[in-house]
Amino acid sequence: MSRDTPTDDEYTAYRVAALPHDEGEFQLTQLFERGYDRWTVDGEQQTKKMLADIERFTTDAFAPSTREEAVERPYVDDPGVLAVLTTLGAVCIMDHPKLEDTPSRHLALLGDLRELYVNNIGSLVREYEDWSLHQEIAETLYAKDPGEDGVHPGRVCTDVTTRPEFGEGYYLEIPFVAASRKCLARADGDEEQQGEIQAHVADNNLYVPVSDFMAKYREYAEDAFDRLLAVQEESLTAEQRSWLTANESAITDRIDRFFQAGQTHRVWENWNRQKRDIRTIINAVKAADDDTAQLDEPQSARALYEALKTYDSGQTWEQRACDSFSTPRSVGNTVTAMGNHSSVSIEHKWENRYTLTEYSDGARPLHVDDLEDLFELPCMAVMDERLQEKQPVRKDLFNLVRLAWWLPQYRDATTEEFISDVKDLFSRWPWYDEDTTEYQIRYELNNDIGGEIPLPMNCENNDMQRYCIGCDQCPYSIYGSLPFPDEMYEQIDDQPSPSTN
User: Fold this and answer.
1) Are 111 and 269 in contact (CB under 8 A)?
2) What is the C-alpha end-to-end distance of the chain, expressed in Å?
3) Residues 223, 208 within the same domain
């Protein structure tokens, strides 16, 4: 059977769905066509049935039990159908009238849908009987990075087999010459030490347990969701999108019930419209001429309004916020409603005066004159104590380098100036070695993501949780307290729904 397109070949459908970043738009649109065929009878598309299935799949995704069950067995049995249900459900969520101005990364409901997709595609891959699919996926998951001892010209995974001497289950066979550092599968460790290596060595090969393969694939699938959604949005016409959102009702009703019940935490992740508006006003004032408006100085509502009128934002959500203000009074009412925000203070007179500071989401600001000031953050202080006693894990080094690199004093600094300062910082720990540290810093700086500088880890990142004293006990937040530049927050808002921050 030909393996040309997903529409007529199951293997190709699985491969395209499993590795969408490796495929062009044609193959991905063919994957969607395969999915649409599920609702086509005698050449006629059963739109009502398809809409009902989209509604059921999406609203079921809001239930944790559904998402958890999909880890054990697929909720949807075909990769094309899964791609259609997931992406069209996401469109319905994003186009809800109360959510259309919210950056997608702040939509908790989109995170629920992503989780169901990841668990479902993972189960489909696990249950697929042709091991050559796993071998193709392994090419992406375990291949050497460019510059890592050179790219291996042959197959990365030469077999999926059992090795009773290593234990039960299946193993991926990876030749030494093709093996990357990602093949060193580890058991779960703790904050004291890394887990034991689970890969085994025999016959000039590494044998990586399929359990490690599945764990790494689930991480990959989170980005795969975004790729599918981007292609679906590109392929939908305005008429098709309008028809979809106008005719579905169950998803909209469920979201409305969350709002009516006051369960906004189910809808948003650290985002609401008022925060959007006050951040936009602050950014507009910051960008305005001093003669128009200034931060840290009392301003009239009219001055704030004039700053918004002249603000040229490159962000769609900010432009929508600007357009929503029609008069100085509307601006004053918005700022007054946010009077308890840490970035707002109000002098109540016959004409109110508003003093705005750099945007902070309720966190205590931290000024960083020297890199040692970072250790005023409790999590950094805990990390400091650990590094006095133990060698660092790579993500500790990554976070320290990226945290420092985004500070405003280094935006115009040379790489050599930055490396010199970070080496001075690292020299406080007993394991410090100048040459090794310089190599590690340069390595982290050279590892971009899609051509963009990686963001520092946020408080919610799992790796930072090892050092966190608890958000309810801490007056700071990494993204809210440190004086990062606007471009970093713009990169955050442009990102699809994470994790790794």
Assistant:
1) yes
2) 43
3) no
Instruction: Read off the tokens for 106.
Output: 């702040």
Same domain, 226 and 199: no
Residue 407 lies in a domain: yes
Report, as an integer, the average pLDDT of 89-117.
89
- Residue 276: C-alpha distances to residues 283, 306, 361 (Å): 11, 18, 11
Amino acid at 58: T
CA-based nearest residue to 102, from 113, 114, 93: 93
Task: State both tokens at 10.
Answer: 């199951």
Is 244 found in the same domain as 321? no
* E strand intervals along 93-243: 159-162, 170-175, 200-202, 205-209
Percent of the chain at pLDDT above 90? Answer: 33
Q: Phi and psi (nearest 5°) for 422?
A: -70, -35
Burial class (CB in 10 A: 0-12, 13-18, 19+), 145: exposed
Asked, for residue 325, whether it belongs to a domain, the answer is yes
What is residue 350's DSSP assignment? S
256 and 162 inside one domain = no
Question: In which domain, by residue range, is 471 found?
Answer: 371-494
- Closest by Cα among 317, 231, 269, 251 to 497: 269
Among 356, 387, 422, the domain boundary falls at 356
Q: Is residue 85, in this structure, part of any structural domain at all?
A: yes
How many domains would you assign to the chain?
4
Q: Write down the residue that tokens 């899964």 correspond to.
A: 82
- Structure tokens of 23? 């495929």
Distances (CA, A) of 385 to 221, 395, 429, 456: 35, 16, 9, 20
Q: Both 17 and 163 in a single domain? A: no
Q: Which residue type is seen at 336? A: T
φ, ψ for residue 452, nearest 5 deg: -110, 150
pLDDT digits (tens, 9 = 90+) for 321-354: 888 899 999 999 999 988 888 788 898 767 789 9
CA angle 478, 481, 483 (to 5 degrees): 100
C-alpha to C-alpha distance for 143 and 131, rounded to whole angstroms: 17
pTM for the predicted model, two decimal places = 0.55
User: In this structure, which long-range contacts are made by residues 441-446, counting pairs with CB atoms below 8 Å and at least 24 apart in sequence?
Assistant: 441/397, 441/401, 442/415, 444/397, 444/398, 444/401, 444/402, 445/401, 445/405, 445/415, 445/418
Nearest to 208 by CA among 235, 187, 177: 187
Most confident of 116-120, 174-178, 275-279: 116-120
pLDDT at 241: 94
Residue 212 lies in a domain: yes
Regarding whether 258 and 114 lie in a shared domain, the answer is yes
